Every structure is written in structure tokens, then in C-alpha cells.
Amino acid sequence: MEYISTRAQQGTESIGFCDAILSGLAKDGGLYVPQVWPQFSKNELKAMQGLSYNEIALKVISPFVGDEISQSDLTRMIDEAYASFNHKAIAPITQLDENNWVLELFHGPTLAFKDVAMQLIARLMDYILADRGERATLVAATSGDTGGAAIEAFKGRDNIDVFVLFPHGRVSNVQQRQMTTSHDDNVHALAIEGNFDDCQSIVKAMFNHHEFRDGMKLCGANSINWGRIMAQTVYYFTSAIALGAPDRAISFTVPTGNFGDIFAGFIAKQMGLPIEQLVIASNENDILVRTLQTGTYKKDGVQPTTSPSMDIEISSNFERLLFDKCGRNSDEINSAMGSLAQAGEFTIAAPTLEGIKQDFAADKTDESACQATIKDVFTNNAMMIDPHTAVAVYVAKQHQKAQTPMITLSTAHPAKFPDAVKAASGIEPELPEALKPMMTKEERFNVLGNSAFAVETFIKENSRITK
Ligand SMILES: *Cc1c(COP(=O)(O)O)cnc(C)c1O
């Protein structure tokens, strides 16, 4: 499969899978997307019924990789990645009521859905670098969960150094400790004096600083990296097929921040999976809800909430959706993103907006509804859910239709956000045994100012590439 940038002029050269995985952001500032969406026929989808998570993963991921990695190596990496999960089903579904289901994506080593993609792309990157005899520097901005998942997946790897940027004082204690208690030489946790969007801007600035980027062999672990999205596409297939697809359509509700997770659902639909509706669930940071209502994407400031991984107003992957929905016209993307950078907003052309609304709905939840939902699910289902999942369960119920099963993505384990869950349910969720030692380990991190220069200087001084 070949990949093109959302901002590239037509006729610009495409790149292959391995280069797309290693490069993160395209040099023109755009995001890589496959040249075409692979297709599964109804019979091919039916043939997935009864297969394991790893078997379906191989079928879904193979067309994106093409012949750049052998099937046997890809199979081995998928098996190793998901052996790190502590549930045999990898991503089990639990029934909430007649037609509402929760897809549990938090059984990986850092208890958030980020592990699903990170465990696989760490192996893919290490494999590609070893094959080429190269080394790389991985950078990631995190609102809390990506950082821990990246450090867990990449720690101790020979060919990659990892630098994670998190907003100082704005992540939960468990999230912070997952980033600061790995003492491997190749991992560095950087607390930035700013919010998540600032961290993400610094990462994008480093990618757009081509001399630094080339010198450090920069690659990215955020969902700007195509590999993240690709790996997340898999669980839309496994869960929909478990509930009867392709013989009936399924809807999904997704707690959304950077638009990576729900965009993976859009891809599954493009590939032939019968998805009726994709519902974007937001907390009080509702920029995407407003965008679908008004057609204007307009920044308005970020409020801290109890679901911090969604406290975002630059949803990077929305660019990939826009690109697809405007007929893959990079001029339209360049002008929208230019306007966002300069004026803090852009307006979506009417036909593009209509196209988006055919696949997506969007709704928000406030803090009190989120709390009430945690309590409600605890009372009625004897099940603890984290605040991100609660935001989505609430929204899912508003968008439920009688005939179509609704699957809500549960993106984190409740023990990652013990304070919010205890405040709502009265009970403190217990951390799984394997994670307990981390809570008393010594923390190691550096506090840096909100500046790309400060971060670049730190990386140059601490990366093994410059040594
Ligand atoms: C990252 C994250 C999200 C948001 O996912 P996006 O792909 O950024 O939209 C939601 N919930 C949790 C727990 C997360 O870690």
C-alpha cells in the first residue's frame, strides 16, 4: 500500500508503509493516509466469524502493510504485541442492557486503549529500523495515556530513544507514574508548562523543523502516526462481527479527543464493515460537537475535566476525515489548516459537512452527567467504568436506536482515574496487582518551559543518536 499526505500537491510522490510508519508527520505538515481503502466483501467478513482477535488483526492489517513485511513476521509481531494483554479475548465486549454494549479496550499493560496500537507499532518500528540498520528518536505528546503506553512499549528497545511530553500537573497520579517510574536509559518523561495542545504543537513544530527532524531521525507515536489508526481499526471488526455483522449493522459511540480512535471506525466502514452510525462523545470540551452543528471549527479554550484525555481542541485526525470527505482535495485542506493556525478557526464547505453528517453524530456530557453515569452503571451492572467511558455511555444512550446494537468504546480502566470514580460511586477502584509497585517507586522526569526550542535542546543533549 502507498501513502499520500493530506496536504500534498496532486502528483506528489507517495511513500510505502514502512516509511509512513517511521515518518509521523509528512514534511508538508499533513498526515499520511492510504492511497485507497482496502475492501472486504460480505463473504470475506463472514469468514471472520469465529476467528480470534489476532487472526482478524492479521486480515485487517495485511492490506495496509502490503508486501513490505512478510506474513510470518507480521503474524509474530501481532502475537507478541497482544501476549502483553491480561485478557484472552484482548478486547472483550460486555452487555449493559438490551442493546447497549461496552468494548473493553483497557486490558493492556498501561490500562488504556492506547496499548492496543502502541504494543504493535513499537514492534513494527523496531523491526523496520533493525532491518535498515538505522536508529530513531521517538517523540510523543500526551494528555496522559499515550505517554505511559509509549514508554511501556518502547522501553529498553535498542534502536529507539523515547521522549514523552505531558502537560505539567494535568495528568492523574497513576498516569504520571506510568511515565516517570520506568528508569530505562532510552526513555525520558518531560513535564511541559502548558496544556496538551501546547505539547502537541511543540511536537508538530519539531517535525516541521526539518534540520532537527532529519538530524534526530524523528518519528512520532501520536495518532498522527498512521500505524496507530491502522491497529485501532481491528477492534471495530472483532466487536461488530461478534455481534452479528456483516448480517446486521452496528453503531459505535467513542469518547473522542484527538479523533484517532473514532477515525479508525470510519476506516472500518470504508473497508466494508456495516456501521450505521459513529457517535462522537465529548466532555465539556465540545469543539467537535459545535463543528458538526455549525460547520465552523472554532477554538474556544480548553477546560480541565475528570476525563483529561479528551481535554483537547485540536483534534488532529479530523484533518484525515476532512481530506476524505472533500474529495481528497489538498488545496481545501491547506486553506482550512492555514486559517486554523492564523485565525483559530475554519469553515467546512457545505457538501463536505453533509458528507460528514452521513456517517457521524456528536454529543457532549457535562461533569454531573458523567458522575451520574458512573454511579448508574455501578448500581445497575455492578461494573465500574472510568470517566471517559462514562462520557460515552451517557451519549450512547441518547443516540440508541431500537434495532441497531450500540457498542461504546471503554478506553480506560477505572483504576487509572480513582478519584473521579470514587467521588461518583463511593468506592475506590483497585489497581491490578501488576501495577501496584509503581505507586511507591521513585519518579524521574524533567520540567521544561512551553517552547519547542527548550525541548529540542533537551533531546539533542539526551538522545543516544547524538552520542
Ligand atoms: C486518548 C484517549 C481518548 C481519546 O482518543 P482519541 O483517539 O484521541 O480521540 C479517550 N479516552 C482515553 C482514556 C484516552 O486515553
Provide a quick synopsis of the model.
With 467 residues, this protein is α/β, with parallel strands linked by helices.
Task: Give the SSE layout.
Elements: E1 2-5, E2 15-16, H1 17-23, E3 32-34, H2 42-46, H3 53-65, H4 71-83, E4 93-97, E5 100-104, H5 114-132, E6 136-141, H6 145-154, E7 160-167, H7 173-180, E8 187-192, H8 196-208, H9 210-216, E9 218-220, H10 226-242, E10 250-255, H11 260-270, E11 275-282, H12 287-294, E12 296-298, H13 318-325, H14 330-343, E13 345-347, H15 350-359, E14 360-364, H16 367-381, H17 387-399, E15 406-410, H18 418-425, E16 446-448, H19 452-462
Parallel strand pairs: 5-15, 6-7, 6-9, 7-8, 8-16, 10-11, 10-15, 11-14
Antiparallel strand pairs: 1-2, 1-3, 4-5, 12-13
Helix pairs in contact: 3-4, 3-10, 4-5, 5-6, 5-10, 6-7, 10-11, 16-17, 16-18
Bound molecules: pyridoxal-5'-phosphate.
